[in-house]
Amino acid sequence: MGGTAVELNLWAVSGIALVAVMTFYVGFRSSRAASTTQDFLVARRTVRSRRNAAAVSGEYLSAASFLGVAGLILKDGVDALWYPIGFTAGYLALMLFVAAPLRRSGAYTLPDFVEARLGSSGLRKLATFFVIFIGVLYLLPQLQAAGLVLSRIMPVPQWVGPVIVIVVVVVNVFGGGMRAITVVQAFQYWLKLFAIAAPTFVLCAIFIGRGGAGTDTTALTADAPPTFAETTTVRVETPVRLQVKEPVWLWADGRVNGAPASGDVFWRPEVGEVTVDAGTTLRFNAGSAVPVVAGAPADNESWAKPSSGGAGDLFTTYSLIFATFLGTMGLPHVLVRFYTNPDGKAARRTTLHIMLLLALFYMFPLLLGALSRIYVPELLVTGRTDAAVTTLPVKVIPGIPGEILSAVTAAGAFAAFLSTSSGLVVSVSGVLSTDVLRGRVRDFRWAALIAGIVPLALALVLRPNDVSLSIGVTFALAASTFCPVLLLGIWWRKLTWVGAGAGMIVGGGLVIAAIALDVVSRYTGDWAPSFVKQPALITVPIAFFVVYIVSKATHRRQPGDTSRTLLRMHAPDPLGFIRDRDVARFGTAEERARLADGRHRR
Amino acid sequence: MSRHSAGAGPGRSPRDSQENGVAGPPPRRKRVVLADSRAPVTVLRTVVELEEQTSYGEELVRGFIRIQFRTAVRLALLAAVLLCGLPVLFYFVPAISDITVAGVRLPWLLLGVAPFPVLFGIGYWYNVLAERHERDFVDMVEK
């Protein structure tokens, strides 16, 4: 990015190197235990609920959570709090409707569940396609953000970050599959919690110790824009439109409003918006008001209040709640972790633990986001709010302590890229190896290579996007494809494979169309209405409706063993109806024989 | 865990001895097991009925699924009403933003802190209810 030379930040680089080495070591240690297909696919279904919960949280807290949430709070204020709420509430929906029955179905991948329930190999292929598509779509922002973070702390090109992430992840998955990844992800949850909690505690202590924000800065609830606490130089690297609410004297070098500017300029509130081109340097004096990027609340008063922009805002909020609430249960890399539970009861308890761990984590981005509004308002000028978490400590604490804290957050962000990517790679390669290849351990390893290299190539070719935004769209896609099939498949007898397939194609197709339209609109002047950016509130009901109508119309295609499948999914674990399909397909003769006995326990 | 150690105990020796037994030392002593002690000890009439899907078993399962589904839907609705009520509340009662509690605006507390204990509480409640329903069902089956 940009032409400025980035100097090597030794602390951050060694923090990231430490995380990479520890990740590799933890994965290596636990991959010695993995030898069979069932180890690689579902860790032999022996992961206890606490460790599993830490692993799910570890993989779920991606770059969007670690960096994005604080950045969104810095930019959008109280409205951005819906992201953490939705991310957590998704697990409530998962627990209420999906967790235990999904585990008891005995499936080992999402396509396998679809086939177990509806008995159609064609539908299985469609599900395979969507799992891989969602996996890659989710992986891309992780890799691109890794490139961005790494290129900010050391003088390397953008492709280095993604390559390091993929190498570490693929080596781990290659060595031990799910067995290795489980421990890695559980370890990385605690690492991330530490990496965000420690700086937050220190920064809050300093904030309180100084007796609040001080006199130079605007109070977070004042009816005025945030102000620069000290003279600040901002380099604009992508063109931005800025809102000017207060008169600002500044020094500019570059192109402003399409005309060359060099020297002191004065922006009056009457001009409203100012366009600043890439490559422009702006210098603001201490105490001057911060011009905020267009589309975000310009003053602290409206930042601190829930949006009241009318029905459009309300629609976006509800659509986001909807997408995250129902989308979590459709994310293949989250579901793949649920198959590793020993039984249905453990799956439910895992989910309960996850909600606790997530709630604990999300306290910290909230505080960091609010603090960055006071201390790093210059990020509002460039719109690069994702950098809030990593730049805040250096700004607040000068010298080496600040750099060390900043390095801790950078290492945490890197752990986020690693753990989410490993979850995605393991879920995609599980599906690839059993549905496209033949499902031996060797196939799983090949699949892991493919699942790592293809997204890597895409990440290097495609243009980086706003990290959190594309995550929202991924949730919408998951909610419009797998959510109806899972919910209706688990609770509704009359579902047919035709209905499920039609719903997935229509729901998924609509979301993909919305993504395409949004990309086109972003290149041609941003004309797309808000429902194109967050389409879940429209596409999910349509998908449900299509599944319902088509299933009704094709009721003769109901699979003959629906009752038996439903009994298996819902019967309490002690009755011993669980039949693990991975054992039936990949197990040894002995394991299969034991499976046939059932295991009723008193 | 290796493939073989999965079947530790009685099941293990036959295969090993077959593989080595042709030219090697005389076959090892075999333990003959008439009944696997880990195998199910209880084959209950109701479990069989569930498995065979008699009309009685089918009705039992349907009833049980219905109970679990109702519990889940009720709790989901509770969570949805509590959460989805907030945007409407902020939209129609903007004055709520001016209330401060301990120096923090009320919407920040309502969105940043309050939802998490509520969500966890609902989840905990569901866990208790679902496990209770399962225990009741098992007790009924094993009666």
Q: What does this entry look like structurally?
A:
The complex is a heterodimer of chains A (602) and B (143). With 602 residues, chain A is of the alpha+beta class. Chain A is built from 24 helices and seven strands. Chain A has two domains: 10-209 and 304-562, Sodium/glucose cotransporter, CATH 1.20.1730.10; 232-285, no CATH class. In chain A, the strands form two sheets. In chain A, strands 1-6-3-4 form a four-stranded antiparallel beta sheet. Chain A has a three-stranded antiparallel beta sheet with strand order 5-2-7. In chain A, helix 7 (110-118) runs antiparallel to helix 8 and helix 18 packs antiparallel against helix 19. Chain B is mainly α. Chain B has a domain at 45-142. Chain B is built from five helices and two strands, in the order αααββαα. Chain B starts with 12 loop residues before the first helix and ends with a helix. Chains A and B meet through helix 5, helix 11, helix 13, helix 22 and helix 24 of A and helix 2, helix 3, helix 4 and helix 5 of B.
What is the oligomeric state here?
heterodimer
Helical percentage of chain A: 55-70%
Which outline of chain B best applies?
Answer: elongated
* Span of the ends, CA to CA of chain A: 63 Å
Mean model confidence by pLDDT of chain B: 78
Proportion of beta-strand residues of chain A: 5-15%
Q: How many beta strands in the DSSP annotation of chain A?
A: 7
Low-confidence stretches of chain A: 1-5
Keywords (chain A): Cell membrane, Ion transport, Membrane, Sodium, Symport, Transmembrane, Transmembrane helix, Transport
Transmembrane segments (chain A): 6-28, 53-74, 80-102, 123-140, 160-177, 189-208, 315-340, 352-376, 404-432, 444-462, 468-488, 495-516, 536-554
InterPro entries (chain A): Na/Glc_symporter_sf (IPR038377), Na/solute_symporter (IPR001734), Na/solute_symporter_CS (IPR018212), Sodium:Solute_Symporter (IPR050277)
Family (chain A): Belongs to the sodium:solute symporter (SSF) (TC 2.A.21) family.
